[in-house]
Every structure is written in structure tokens, then in C-alpha cells.
Amino acid sequence: MINPGLIKSICEDASEAIMDVYEKDYTVTFKDDNSPFTAADQESNEIIMRLLKKHYPEIPIISEEMVKQVDYETRKNWSKFWLVDPLDGSKEFIKKNDQFCVIISLIEHNEPVFGMMYSPVSKETYYAIKGQGAYKIVGERNSSLPLEKSPKGQVNIIGSLSHSSPEFDDFIKQQESTGKKTHVVQIGSGLKFCHVAEGKADIYPRFVPTMEWDTAAGQLLVEECGKKMIDNQTQKRMTYNKVSLKNNGFIVS
């Protein structure tokens, strides 16, 4: 049994390390895929890996910041594993716009069954448990999601702060061609899913690459709020522990 309070405390410990770096000068390096990397990514990863191994030694872990990813032949028979993004939204972190988060997900039989997203800046927690709903924690208040509904007559669509694409522009035009009034809300990192789960947005279309650790918690969060997340290529529900950990594009609606 996964204890949400324990996972939240792990996120908080990691977030303290992230904020220590955030508030100082730091060096930015770039990985082989040209994605940025800072000491905050490394320190958060070390804390999360250590604490997950301590409290759940029987569950293997895949993290974005592992030096070498686990090959498919090793993980294909895993029935359960953690997916970790120790600092989702590194570009937003570097821009200092506060829109980044810590993401921890639990995958069982190729689907997310637990997911948590934690904002180090606002200290807001979003989490979901398969079949048990989605929640937002602010201070001592734990509220069921969604909290509100978008205004009638308008479609609020989530856009990315750092990853625009021609396909996204075409999607907006297609929505507007049907007579719908659209409003684009630009959000950074996995917090996009939180915006949808809260009821502040209706649709989140994604046409540029993501990895499994970017989306698992968010998928469960929005699904527990009654939304669907569909793979653009297969037209089916997104699944996990694929041969490649890279996702196709998707639409949350």
C-alpha cells in the first residue's frame, strides 16, 4: 500500500534542495538530448531515489536523471515500478518563472495507479490514486478535484510556455473553425495537467515529445477527474513501460 503522506514528504524534502539551488547562482549544463541540467535536478534525484529505496526497497525505479536508463529486456517483466521526474520543467526553473514541479508515479501492469505532482514554489500538492479520485493539498486542506468548471461558451486550452509547435496552432484553428470561442492558457511543466484537473482548462493537446516520467502522474490525475488522455498515433489510452520511454503526442479532453 502506497502512503500518499510519505510520498508527499519525499517531494517536500526534494523540493527544499531544489529551492536552495533556485535562490542562488548555479551552472546550467546540457545533456545529450540538449535538455538543461542543474544541481537542483541532481540533488532532487538523489533524495528521491534514496528515500524510495529506503521505504519501498522491493519496487524498482526509473528516473529521468539516472546515469544509464534501464534497458527494456530488464524492465519488460516488471509488474510494478516507480517513474520519477525529480525536476519537471527545467527550462522554467532556469527562466525563474516558478512553473516547475516534482513528479513521482507508480506504474502497475503498464498503467499509472498512483501519481503525485508537487510545486516547490507554491507548496501545493496534486495526487491521484486509481479508482479513488484526485486531490489537491494546500496547507492542511485536502480537496477533491475538480474544484471548478470552465466558463460555458468558451474552450480553455492549455499551451506550453517552452514547447510551441505548428500542430498546436493548427489545432486551435480547427477548434475555432467549428465556431468555438477559444482561450489559450500557457503553463509550464507537468502543472498543465493540474490546471486541467482543477477544472481551469478543458483541453490539453501535446504535439512535441514527452517521456513517460513527464506524463504518468498527470494522466492519472486527469483521468480520475473524468477526462481522457488519448495517444495521437494509436488513438488509444496512453500506456507505460513501452520499448521506448518516449511518448507519442496526445490530447487530454
Mean pLDDT: 95
The CATH class name of the largest domain reads Alpha Beta
Helicity level: 25-40%
CATH topology name of the largest domain, in short, is Fructose-1,6-Bisphosphatase, Chain A, domain 1
| Major sheet characteristics | 7 strands, mixed
Number of domains: 2
Describe this structure in words.
- With 253 residues, the chain is an alpha+beta fold.
- 31% of the residues lie in helices and 28% in strands.
- It is built from seven helices and 16 strands.
- The protein has helices spanning 4-22, 39-55, 72-75, 90-95, 166-177, 191-198, 212-223; strands spanning 29-30, 36-37, 61-63, 80-88, 101-108, 111-118, 125-129, 133-138, 141-144, 155-160, 182-187, 204-206, 210-211, 229-231, 246-247, 250-252.
- The strands form five sheets. It has a seven-stranded mixed sheet with strand order 3-4-5-6-7-8-9, sandwiched between helices.
- The chain is globular.
- The two termini are 30 Å apart.
- The mean pLDDT is 95.
Produce a short descriptive summary.
The protein is α+β, with helices and mostly antiparallel strands and 253 residues long. The chain is built from seven helices and 16 strands. It has two domains: 4-144, Fructose-1,6-Bisphosphatase, subunit A, domain 1 (Fructose-1,6-Bisphosphatase, Chain A, domain 1), CATH 3.30.540.10; 155-252, D-Maltodextrin-Binding Protein, domain 2 (3-Layer(aba) Sandwich).
Summary keywords:
D-Maltodextrin-Binding Protein, domain 2, 16 strands, 253 residues, three-stranded antiparallel sheet, alpha+beta, Fructose-1,6-Bisphosphatase, Chain A, domain 1
